[in-house]
């Protein structure tokens, strides 16, 4: 029998009717329509489904949605504000902290959760914290480099502006002129 619940996701209330055994991952994707959180292993070991619930990093594939009523849920969609990327998102773009993208939302959410709790972690602390997020594409160096860039404030003040400038510069070279 479905139950009426209100989930507070990224600062907004969502009233949904769900079965009591519906996992938070599926409620977010199917009922709320936020598909950034990914399903990886479905047993809570890969980190692809990571979200933040009341300041704690959780595996949404193991968490009942109904248990999150009255709690603040943060997903990857809730990080950017007013069109400006969160510093962790920006660092992942600048430092190439992703490949195929399946694990990226979980990696970014995990990094945010760490930095919320410990704004100045050592590389070893970052490695330990991020060890719960698996990536099949990379050797993890770019992920670590991205997180440490945030720690050491080595991200561009305005990455989008910098990217637009580089794009315009490349286009001005007219390298690919048709003959």
Name its key features.
Ubiquitin-like (UB roll); DNA polymerase, domain 1; 2 domains; about 35% helix
Give a verbal description of the structure:
The protein is an alpha+beta fold and 179 residues long. It has two domains: 3-78, Ubiquitin-like (UB roll) (Roll); 87-171, [2Fe-2S]-binding domain (DNA polymerase, domain 1), CATH 1.10.150.120. The chain has helices spanning 24-32, 87-95, 104-117, 123-130, 141-151, 159-172, and strands spanning 3-9, 12-18, 50-53, 56-59, 72-74. Strands 2-1-5-3-4 form a five-stranded mixed β-sheet, with helices on both faces. Strand 1 and strand 2 (12-18) form a beta hairpin. Helix 2 (87-95) packs across helix 5. The protein is globular, with a radius of gyration of 18 Å. It starts with a strand and ends in a 7-residue tail after the last helix. The mean pLDDT is 92.
Low-confidence stretches: none
How much of the residues is beta strand, in percent?
Answer: 5-15%
Structural class: alpha+beta
CATH architecture annotation of the largest domain: Orthogonal Bundle
Strand count, sense and barrel status of the largest sheet are:
5 strands, mixed
Query: What sequence of helices (H) and strands (E) makes up the elements?
Result: EEHEEEHHHHH
How many beta-strand elements?
Answer: 5
Helix content bin: 25-40%
User: What is the CA-atom radius of gyration, in angstroms?
Assistant: 18 Å
Number of helices: 6
Strand order of the largest sheet: 2-1-5-3-4
Task: Briefly note the CATH topology name of the largest domain.
Answer: DNA polymerase, domain 1
Tally of structural domains: 2
Question: Averaging pLDDT over every residue, what do you get?
Answer: 92
Shape: globular
The span between the termini is 67 Å
Q: What name goes with the CATH superfamily of the largest domain?
A: [2Fe-2S]-binding domain
The level 1 CATH classification of the largest domain is Mainly Alpha
């Amino acid at each position: 029998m479905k139950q009426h619940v209100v989930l507070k996701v990224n600062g907004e209330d969502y009233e949904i009717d769900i079965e009591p055994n519906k996992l938070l991952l599926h409620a977010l994707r199917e009922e709320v329509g936020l598909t950034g959180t990914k399903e990886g292993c479905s047993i809570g070991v890969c980190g692809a489904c990571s979200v933040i619930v009341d300041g704690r990093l959780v595996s949404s594939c193991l968490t009942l949605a109904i248990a999150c009523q009255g709690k603040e849920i943060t997903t990857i969609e809730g990080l950017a504000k007013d069109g400006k990327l969160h510093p962790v998102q920006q660092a992942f773009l600048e430092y190439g902290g992703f490949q195929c993208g399946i694990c990226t939302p979980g990696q970014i959410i995990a990094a945010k959760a760490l930095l919320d709790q410990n704004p100045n972690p050592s590389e070893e602390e970052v490695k330990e914290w991020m060890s719960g997020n698996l990536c099949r594409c990379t050797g993890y160096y770019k992920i670590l480099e991205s997180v440490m860039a945030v720690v050491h404030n080595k991200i561009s003040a305005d990455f989008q502006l910098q990217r637009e400038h580089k794009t315009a510069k490349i286009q001005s070279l007219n390298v690919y002129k048709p003959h």
